[in-house]
Amino acid sequence: MTSTIPGMSRRAVLKLMAAAGGLAVTGVPSVAAREAMRSRAIPSSGEEVPVVGLGTARTFNLDPGEEREPLRGVLREFFAAGGRVIDTSPMYGTAETVIGDLLGDMDHPEVFYATKVWTRGEEAGIRQMEESAERMGTDVIDLIQVHNLVDWRTQLKTLRRWKDEGRIRYLGITHYRVSAFDDLERIMREEGLDWVQLPLSLATPDAADRLLPLAADRGIAVLVNRPFENGGLFRAVRGRELPEWAGEIGAESWAQLFLKYILGHPEVTCVIPATSDPEHAADNMRAGMGPLPDAGQRRRMRELWESLV
């Protein structure tokens, strides 16, 4: 197990790990990185997906002419580790277009395309979803989610029709705020959904007691956003070493510990950390390999977090 060395950045620690043969940062996976990525089933179909996906908010929103090679490196590391689920949205600026362009220029395994509809009105929703498919370069979108519940009744009606027509494979809803949990809970109880996307982290554990059990009862897959709280978790542990017991769950970095806490909840189907750094992408993907914390270990992780903040 490696530890964060006081005064050293995540990048510096990862380079030390790579030099020791623990991580691939050049696009060629190391022996360790070739361990099998865990997968979990989508309850509505039984289809298995890898437990660590890729988020694209902010990180894939590039201006025309802006350097794309780091993101190409992120995708190489993602696929080398067994990743498939890429989550995006029209809300994320140029992210859908950047994804489509990059994937169109590289060999890659089958992708699970997940995007969102983020507008009001039936016609506007249809137009936006058709544009999303064109930008990403796919005829069939695996999952479309109603982003932040905007006009969700109208958009779910269209999504059901599109699913029947084979234009999408799954439908769902999303939100990123705990204050929206009442609405998420009501819709999860009343509507037939394949997926729900919600926040869950050491700093925001609320969904674990409330929405994850409901998702399991209703047969809804769970996609977890904001696993690092926009970097807030890293700021809280800056300069601190990993606890010795992190090795029990195979966590070699704080990022892996944060992600394994989420994946330790069996109701979680996939978590979608976002990064524009290939080294961080490789590190994140390692969280989906090896052991995961049980309920007792997750309590210890919560106690550690509460002692830090």
Automatic annotation (TrEMBL):
SUPFAM superfamilies: NAD(P)-linked oxidoreductase (SSF51430). Pfam families: Aldo_ket_red (PF00248). It comes from the Bacteria. Transmembrane segments: none annotated. InterPro entries: AKR2_Oxidoreductase (IPR053135), NAD(P)_OxRdtase_dom_sf (IPR036812), NADP_OxRdtase_dom (IPR023210), TAT_signal (IPR006311). Residues 52-294 form the NADP-dependent oxidoreductase domain. This is Aldo/keto reductase.
